[in-house]
Amino acid sequence: MPVEVQAGLAGRGLKLGEIVPCRETQAATVLALLGEPEQYSYPSIFIYGHQSTGKSHVTLTLLQELQLPHVVVSCVECFSAGLLFERVLVSLFGLAAPPLLRHSGFSDFVRLFHRLNASSAQPHQTLYVVLDRAELLRDMDANLLSGFLRLQEFVEDNVTVILLSEIVWEKFRPSTGCFEPLLLHFPDYNKAELQHILSQAAPSSHPPELYSTYINVLLGVFFAVCRDLRELSHLVRHCMAAQASCFGAGCINKAFVLIIIILTIETQLKRFHKTTASSYLVNHATHSVN
């Protein structure tokens, strides 16, 4: 990890395990790829993995905590090249960026980017362009993906493009070939990591030990068919409402409460599991094919 990056995190009293729990290895790799702010970074980085594996969270958290100049663009919202160009320029250069016509091409975007960056009063350091759901670039102009992968070369300045995607690079690479980015994979969370992350969200009114046990019971039922952190977080809130009395302040006998959790909550979760497992498997299978 670069020395200045370490100092930046330490100066704020931050540790990777605190700001990106269970993603310390991936976060350290991202930091190493970013390098020092004033030095040239690699032109493009491709980060991929299933939904809710921490790709966006880790990348954006590090850029924000280190206060690095960046822009985050959702390719779902910016569904055309014109919208994408406009969002990048306005976010990086503010009102100084004149509006591009919606039919403007990539060459117009590069010329304007180069001119605005050369006249910018901001400290000269790496600019980061983060494209979320980057697989949608394949549905836009044919040269758009190849252009962003080589944006640093075209604008002749220190710019790094980070592409976040849920599909592997082999399905992403254009058939005509392109500049190869650095690849970084975010694996699915395992059961222990999910329990650790979900347990951190324990309400202050709930005993931490009992809440952790509840999370363990829930994962024992749903982990085989669902490893999506967002969906599991929703299930925790949904199922916990029916058993709120088990976590009340009046529950002094922890052993008794644990028996209640195992006998009642697990039964309820398994009943709920029957109604959700099949639909999740169908959606996950469809997502994998795409």
Report on the architecture of this protein:
By secondary structure, the chain is an alpha/beta fold. It is built from 13 helices and five strands. A five-stranded parallel β-sheet has the order 2-3-4-1-5, sandwiched between helices. The protein is elongated. The mean pLDDT is 81.
Rounded mean pLDDT is: 81
Rounded to the nearest angstrom, the distance between the terminal CA atoms is 35 Å
User: Could you name the ranges where pLDDT drops below 50 across 5 or more consecutive residues?
Assistant: none
Rg is 23 Å
Shape: elongated
Q: With helices defined by DSSP (H or I, 4 residues minimum), what is the helix count?
A: 13
Approximate strand percentage: 5-15%
Biggest sheet, spatial arrangement of strands? 2-3-4-1-5
Helix content: 40-55%
What is the string of SSEs from the N terminus onward?
A: HHHEHEHHEHHEHEHHHH
Count the strands?
5
- What profile does the largest beta sheet have? 5 strands, parallel
Estimated structural class: alpha/beta
Name its key features.
single chain, 290 residues, alpha/beta, 13 helices
Write the layout of secondary structure elements.
Elements: H1 3-11, H2 16-19, H3 24-34, E1 44-48, H4 55-65, E2 70-74, H5 81-93, H6 106-118, E3 127-132, H7 144-149, H8 151-155, E4 159-165, H9 169-172, E5 182-185, H10 191-199, H11 208-222, H12 229-240, H13 254-289
Parallel strand pairs: 1-4, 1-5, 2-3, 3-4
Helix pairs in contact: 5-6, 10-11, 11-13
